[in-house]
Design goal:
The protein has helices at residues 16-31, 43-49, 66-81, 85-92, 95-102, 120-135, 153-162, 174-183, 222-226, 230-245, 264-273, 288-294, 306-314, 326-338, 356-396, 417-425, 427-461, 464-479, and strands at 2-6, 14-15, 35-40, 55-58, 106-109, 112-115, 139-147, 168-171, 190-191, 214-217, 249-251, 255-256, 280-282, 300-303, 318-323, 341-342, 345-347, 413-414. It is of the alpha/beta class.
């Protein structure tokens, strides 16, 4: 079968996690005898960075503005009702995408964190892609997503309308499964591991010249959220961890523009500059498969990004995740829960506390038990998540199947009391962050509606009808002596 795969790939700023998701899904479909077609922002970019063996098609770049993107979805619904899918595509520059969807046997909307209003242009793109595929009679599946948590009113309605139309729905965290059930009670979503967990380490990519023991990855927005003191605090924390591990910290960027030294590469340089000689090694951005391979022998991973945690847990590394937003905390908690780990997602400001040194001691003391837990769980987690992927492809083929969910089957490993105490003490920061993010998407939504109303009023006042009515009103006033 020719199956479309929509992932957030082909961007100028290379994002290891999203590219790994696209690659893993396409590879899995290919080895099962299907022909995947990767929908990407830049087909040439995807063929260069991923593999020539995957067919490509252009994806649809929706506008950022909430009203504009949501109105585009409404226009699509109107066009589909009139049988005018191609006309809608032509008017909006998406004709090639519509044509490519029409030629598929099925469409899969791949995983990632793009079903929320913070990245609303990606959400609307996925809604539109599903609607077009369904219009052409294709089965549509969705897997490995995080849903929300921040959603404006109209996005919630769009998701609630589309989810019941899909042949298979799975999410990568418990919170998303519950939110999907709340939005669309008739849907029975399953829980699976993140799609990038399956990235093929034996195929594409290159063999890294080193496989470090201690890996760190930090996002460029960490300082904006956690404050300027987080950079020296991270440096001191990593120096202590380096001494415990008797190995340098290798900084592995997961999001940057190749050759520009920006994004993760920039923040890594700043942290490393605060560290003592011999404790830090810097890498530049590389392709997703190679990036995953670099982490395959890691013993410790410290990260504020999601997919270093995915790769680290997959290979049995002790992962400490730092969250600076409510969205990041929800995703990190989700991946940890899938591996039965509690207490290893800390609000980033926790490293600013006087307890930071105790955290290092506690983490290194717990390392062996943590890694034994992951090793013992690996086969169970993989088997159950493979079962979900079997169900997904059965749904693509038009068959139903039984599924053993990952839920309620995880034997837990809890972090030492020191980490739990510090985490709990900083949870008000995470709750405020989540509330702030919801307030931001609501604010953007209502500002967008107000701006659209202003444009309509301005257009009306410039119209011939308004001018004519205004002249008639003034003429009537003169005739009546007013």
């Amino acid at each position: 079968m020719r199956i479309g795969v929509l992932a957030d790939i082909g961007q100028a700023v290379y994002h290891v996690g999203d590219e790994a998701i696209g690659h893993a899904i396409a590879h899995d479909m290919q080895i099962r005898g299907h022909e995947p077609v990767l929908f990407t922002r830049d087909p040439a970019h995807t063929r260069l960075w991923m593999s020539e063996r995957f067919a490509t098609a252009p994806s649809m770049a929706f506008p950022w503005d909430p009203d504009e993107r949501q109105s585009l979805v409404e226009d699509l619904r109107t066009a589909l009702a009139a049988g005018d899918a191609y006309g809608w595509g032509m008017r909006n520059g998406f004709a090639e995408t519509v044509r490519a969807i029409r030629e598929l046997d099925a469409m899969h909307i791949g995983g990632g964190g793009n079903l929320n209003s913070q990245y609303g242009w990606l959400l609307s793109e996925r809604i539109a892609t599903a609607l077009i595929a369904l219009h052409f009679g294709k089965r549509v599946t969705l897997g490995g997503q995080t849903l929300g948590p921040a959603l404006n009113e109209r996005d919630r309605a769009d998701i609630a309308q589309v989810l019941p139309l899909l042949s298979h729905v799975s999410f990568r965290d418990y919170a998303s499964v519950q939110l999907a059930r709340d939005l669309a009670p008739e849907v029975a979503p399953s829980l699976s591991l993140d799609d990038a967990t399956y990235v093929d380490l034996a195929g594409d990519g290159s063999d890294p010249d080193r496989r470090p023991k201690l890996v760190a990855t930090f996002s460029s927005d960490l300082e904006e959220r956690a404050g300027h003191r987080i950079i020296p605090a991270l440096a001191q924390f990593l120096i202590r961890l380096s001494k415990h591990a008797n190995a340098p910290v290798t900084f592995v960027p997961h999001m940057a523009t190749p050759g520009e030294g920006d994004g993760d590469e920039e923040v890594h340089r700043r942290i490393a500059a605060e560290m003592t000689a011999g404790t830090a090694e810097l890498m530049t951005i590389t392709d997703a498969v190679t990036s995953a391979r670099i982490l395959s022998d890691a013993e410790f991973v410290v990260t504020s990004r999601f997919h270093p945690a995915v790769f680290g847990l997959r290979h049995g590394a002790a992962v400490l995740a730092l969250a600076s937003t409510g969205y990041a905390y929800a995703r990190m908690e989700g991946v940890m829960q899938n591996w039965g780990v509690d207490g290893y997602v800390l609000p980033a400001p926790a490293l600013l506390s006087h307890e930071s040194a105790r955290l290092t001691d506690a983490m290194t003391r717990d390392q062996a038990d943590y890694r034994r837990h992951l090793s013992g769980l690996k086969e169970t987690a993989w088997a159950r998540s493979r079962n979900d992927r079997d169900r997904l492809l059965a749904a693509v083929d038009g068959h139903s199947g039984t599924s053993e969910h990952l839920e309620n089957e995880i034997v837990g490993h809890s972090a030492p009391p020191e980490l739990l105490e510090v985490r709990d003490g900083h949870m008000p920061f995470m709750r405020r962050s989540a509330q702030s993010e919801q307030a931001e998407v609501d604010r953007d939504y209502f500002r967008s509606l107000a701006a659209a109303a202003d444009r309509e009023i301005t257009a009306y006042r410039s119209s011939r009808t308004y001018r004519s009515l205004n002249l008639l009103h003034r003429g009537r006033g003169r005739l009546l002596g007013r």
